[in-house]
Amino acid sequence: MPLHLRRNVGSIRYFIRMSRYRLDPSPSQEAVLRDHCAHARFIWNLAVEQHLHWHPGRRGAPGYLDQCRQLTAARAEHPWLAAGSQMVQQQALRDFAKAMAAFFDPANPAGRPLWRKADRNEGFRIVGRRGQQWDARRLSRHVGQVWVPKAGWVKFRWSRAVPSGVKSYRVTRDRAGRWHVAFAWIPDPVPAPGNGGVVGVDRGVAVSAALSTGDLLCVAGLNAPEWKRLRHLERMLARAKPGSNRRKQVRLAAARLKARETDRRKDWAEKTSTALARRFDIVRVEDLNVKSMTRSARGTAQDPGRNVRAKSGLNREILRSGWGLLVRRLEEKAPSRVEKINPAFTSQRCSACGHVDGKSRESQARFVCTACGFACHADVNAARSIAAGHAVTAR
User: Fold this and answer.
1) Are 122 and 76 in contact (CB under 8 A)?
2) CB-based burial of residue 130 (10 Å sphere; 0-12 exposed, 13-18 middle, 19+ buried)?
3) Is the pLDDT assigned to residue 3 strictly greater than 80?
4) Which residues are within 8 A (CB) of 198 and not within 5 positions of it... i.e. 6 or more apart?
5) Taking Cα atoms as reference points, which of 139, 175, 133 lies closest to residue 156?
6) What percent of the chain has a predicted confidence (pLDDT) above 70?
7) How many CA atoms, within 13 angstroms, populate the side-chain half-sphere of residue 322?
8) H-helix or E-strand spanning residue 284
9) What are the Cα distances from residue 227, in Å, to 155, 258, 263, 264?
10) How many angstroms from the chain centroid is the CA of residue 63?
């Protein structure tokens, strides 16, 4: 489940933000949460199977109301399913119905809902009015509690106040074994400073984000000892026997390191996007299709790709730099203040005289114009061209 959802009401687009907190359930409560995740995943997969069974000429798959009636009959027949929370199971069906509606929406198409797997898609959603179906309260400075059906009051780390107007929350468990609770709400956008400032952002691999002001921002990933340990764990995982306890322990240790890298990337994107939205009125970025850029280059058996190993390494670095995450959070925090510029030849164009020449890019980090001799950091030069809004379509 994404942490950022979009909802169109009329001509206004609302970004639903999920404020996430770290859960700290007791062993008995964790068992209940695991059952909720299993029940939600089981109901979701049954709905997927029903819709995959349909083909032209066959009767249509059941809708949400029909599936709720089938769920009631299944709970009456199977005691293990009736022992779970009916709200959790119904919300799994409602989430699937929304996913199917998004799949058939031509204005904002999404991917087809697929199977959910254990230890990978662990989570469930609770919907209702706060104070009636569920509630959250603060116990001390850094400890709070949230009411979960069948589990009671579950503690979580009170890192910030729970937003007002929350009508649903989602409990998830990541691959590193950590439990989180995320409250859904619609935040206010970051107000513009009103200074008329315009900044260009050039996204790269060596430098995650170069600003037209000359600032070079890099994502804080894993350090050298952490990378060494991660490679060692991956080699141990390749030699471990499938299904063994040793394999589970090694996989969990590697997942914790990868989760640490993901948390640092998200923290960097949040702080960088907030700072840009507060400092500048207009933020200009390159209009890049990150999904297509990070697509595999293996090709097919009849037409295999070239330089597949190098391309896969580049894909990992692009994803590790958080290109898409940074722009998405900018659009959510500063709506209508983010402009996308044609990326053609922005790295070869001189920001001083406008001359375009590929030979001006002497190296990855140095740009020297062959016409006027202007020298600058290559990424900063590209960011200045982006800030100017130049869209070069031909040499």
Assistant:
1) no
2) middle
3) no
4) 280, 281, 282, 283, 284, 387
5) 139
6) 93
7) 27
8) strand 282-286
9) 33, 10, 15, 14
10) 29
Closest of 325, 327, 352, 359 to residue 341, by C-alpha: 327
All residues at 6 or more sequence positions from 269 whose CB lies less than 8 Å from its CB, including other chains? 322, 325, 326, 329
d(CA 124, CA 113): 16
Q: At what angle do helices 27-52 and 86-103 cross, to 10 degrees?
A: 40
What DSSP assignment string belongs to 268-329?
Answer: HHHHHHHHHHHH-SEEEEE---HHHHTS---B-SSSB-SSHHHHHHHHHHHHHTTHHHHHHH
Other C-beta atoms closer than 10 Å to the C-beta of 171 total 25
Length of the chain: 395
Which distant-in-sequence residues (6+ apart) come within 8 Å of 71 by Cβ?
43, 86, 89, 90, 93
Instruction: Report, as an integer, the average pLDDT of 120-129.
Output: 90
128 contacts: CB under 8 Å, gap ≥ 6: 87, 134, 167, 168
What's the pLDDT at 16? Answer: 67
Q: Between residues 344 and 131, which one has the greater pLDDT?
A: 344
Tell which residue, 182, 168, 180, 150, has the closest CA to residue 39.
150
pLDDT digit string (tens) for 314-334?
Answer: 888 888 888 899 999 999 898
Q: Could you give the angle at which helices 86-103 and 64-77 cross, rounded to 10 degrees?
A: 150
Helix (H) or strand (E) holding 206: none
- Do the beta carbons of residue 173 and residue 37 sit within 8 Å? yes
Task: Give CA–CA dist 144/160, Å, rounded.
Answer: 10
Integer-rounded Cα radius of gyration of the chain? 25
Question: Counting Cβ atoms within 10 Å, is residue 185 exposed (0-12), middle (13-18) or buried (19+)?
Answer: middle
